[in-house]
Write a structure and sequence with these properties.
With about 550 residues, this protein is α+β, with helices and mostly antiparallel strands. About 20% of the residues lie in helices and about 30% in strands.
Length: about 550
């Protein structure tokens, strides 16, 4: 099931609308009321982002333009079946092509590149995808979840800035949405849907289900219906912007209209007499966007039913459960065990480099750097097998010791707290600890220098992380966890510095994170202070629906 309209889409920032016509693509800048046309035939599918537009054509090409109409580049794609572009909803421009050979396409430093994708892939951001097979869901970090009672997952997209997935599934012959946390696979909501075509506003978390002329709105965060909009003409397609503030409706006759979904509510002060509750009627004045060559006859839309709640914009953050914290000595001991694991894995990486002679003497072969070249191309081995075997035993022994410890990365530990707070996968935690290790134990920095074997490199860079975590964590997985849209970088736990390109950019852990790993209260400066609440939530001068939601 397609969650995104293939030929009618809002841009990711909601400021533009893109419509595919038989002989052109129309781009409407909604903020400035500017319209541009791109003369292109045979468009099969669109992917609209905040700064660029992608189109897959029947000629087997993927074209890319800037939103001001400037061509950027193109690439061949494999046609076949009902192939479509499924855009990622967070991070850089990226989209899944679901044709004969599924592939994840992305803007890699300004150039279109692709990586193979599995059947049933659901894009999250960049190279990060989930995979659905029947009722089973595999998440980017490798966690799997089986949705109880589901016959088959039909499709889905990332919502709430990539922290959750909204999965449309078949359950007992009907459709429903399951909301699943990306980090843990925990199911948060199961919401029955009316039959029809589903569109999702990813930032706001609202599903729009179109059945004929009816469009039902459902809040995915709270699991409640928001009402229905009814058109007085037959509709061919519909799209909703990321924040669920407007609908784009295409009639079967070809006209397209915008339907604002702004709500107006009147706050009451508590020092005034309470007034009887009255249902608020939302404003749904339609704004026509002319796309046909002839003057279009506007599509007239009925007003939404008055049962729609007035508040569609503010919800409470999900409260985090209270956690018991380890005393600082226990936190320090847990951190020492983590750093010991990093030291052993670094020693193992050095032994592997000795064994292949990636690290060796410059004059021990007949030709300059002969052994190093052979090591880098996979043609060398067997020079330090006893050291490598001993290092493997040490790593395995320490790993078994940690696995047998019921308190290792248990809920009260700083590592587990960070993982829960930022949605970090086990691989992301390992990467974070590798980057943090030299700042926690200075001797680790010397081990890193020996492994890098290049005085011009930073103490820690992405390539060094790959060598240390090999072979348990792949280069592709490490690259995905260090992408700008992945939690480590997006939330500021890890910073790329030094002005060099990946994988040689210097990687550093934020000092606040280092303090938290040590079990210390981080120093946030004078500008940040903890301020306690001095009144009950009900005493705030806020509209009743907002308070009820909070």
């Amino acid at each position: 099931m397609d969650i995104h309209a293939s030929r009618l889409q809002f841009t990711r920032d909601g400021r533009g609308l893109v419509v595919a016509e038989p002989d052109r693509i129309v781009v409407v800048d909604l903020a400035r009321d500017v319209r541009r046309e791109l003369a292109i035939h045979g468009v099969r599918s669109l992917a609209a982002f905040a700064d660029q537009l992608w189109a897959a054509t029947a000629a087997g090409a993927l074209h890319r333009w800037s939103l001001d109409g400037q061509p950027l580049d193109d690439a061949p794609i494999a046609l076949g079946g009902e192939g479509a572009l499924v855009p990622a909803t967070v991070g850089g421009a990226a989209a899944l092509w679901t044709g004969a050979r599924p592939a994840m396409w992305l803007d890699d430093l300004g150039r279109l590149t692709s990586v193979a994708a599995d059947d049933g892939a659901i894009p999250i951001a960049g190279r990060r995808c989930a995979r659905a097979a029947g009722a089973r869901l595999t998440l980017p970090a490798g966690h799997t979840a089986t949705l109880d009672g589901v016959e088959r997952i039909l499709g889905g997209c990332a919502i709430f800035e990539g922290t959750c997935l909204a999965l449309v599934a078949r359950h007992a012959g009907a459709h429903e949405v399951r909301v699943v946390a990306v980090a843990s696979g925990r199911q948060l909501q199961a919401i029955a849907l009316p039959p029809g075509e589903v569109r999702i506003a990813p930032r706001r978390g609202v599903a729009v289900v179109r059945s004929g002329r009816d469009l039902a709105l459902v809040d995915l965060r709270l699991g409640r219906p928001l009402g229905t909009v009814v058109a007085d003409r037959d509709l061919a397609d519909a799209a909703v912007d990321p924040d669920a503030t407007q609908l784009a409706l295409r009639a079967t006759s070809g006209e397209v209209e915008l339907l604002p979904l702004a709500r107006h509510e009147r706050a009451r002060r508590r020092d005034r007499p309470a007034e009887p509750e009255r249902e608020t009627e939302p404003e749904v004045a339609a704004v026509a966007v002319e796309l046909a060559l002839a003057e279009p006859e506007p599509v007239r839309l009925a007003r939404a039913e008055p049962e729609v709640p007035p508040d569609l914009a503010i919800d409470a953050f999900e409260p985090r459960p209270a956690r018991a914290e380890l005393p600082r000595p226990a936190a320090a001991a847990a951190l020492r065990r983590e750093i010991r694991a990093i030291a052993l894995r670094t020693a193992r990486a050095i032994a592997a480099a000795w064994n292949t002679r990636r690290i060796g003497y410059g004059d021990e072969a007949a030709h300059p750097y002969e052994h190093e070249v052979a090591a880098l191309t996979g043609a060398n081995s067997g020079f330090a097998t006893e050291y490598l075997d001993a290092a493997d035993r040490a790593v395995a022994g320490h790993a078994a010791e940690l696995a047998a410890d019921p308190h290792h990365r248990a809920a009260p530990t700083p590592v587990a707290t960070l993982a829960d707070e930022f949605g970090l996968s086990p691989a992301a935690l390992d990467i974070l600890l590798v980057i943090a290790a030299p700042s926690i134990d200075g001797d680790i920095a010397r081990l890193y220098g020996i492994l890098a074997n290049d005085g011009a490199r930073a103490i820690v860079d992405e390539l060094l992380v790959e060598h240390i975590l090999a072979p348990s964590t792949s280069r592709e997985e490490i690259g995905a966890e260090l992408d700008a849209d992945a939690p480590l970088v997006r939330f500021g736990l890890v910073a790329c510095r030094g002005g060099r390109a990946r994988p040689f950019a210097s990687l550093e852990v934020d000092p606040v994170v280092l303090a938290r790993l040590r079990g210390k209260a981080p120093h946030l400066g004078r500008a940040v202070q903890v301020r306690a609440a001095d009144r009950d939530l009900r005493a705030l001068d806020l509209p009743a629906p907002t308070l009820a939601s909070a």
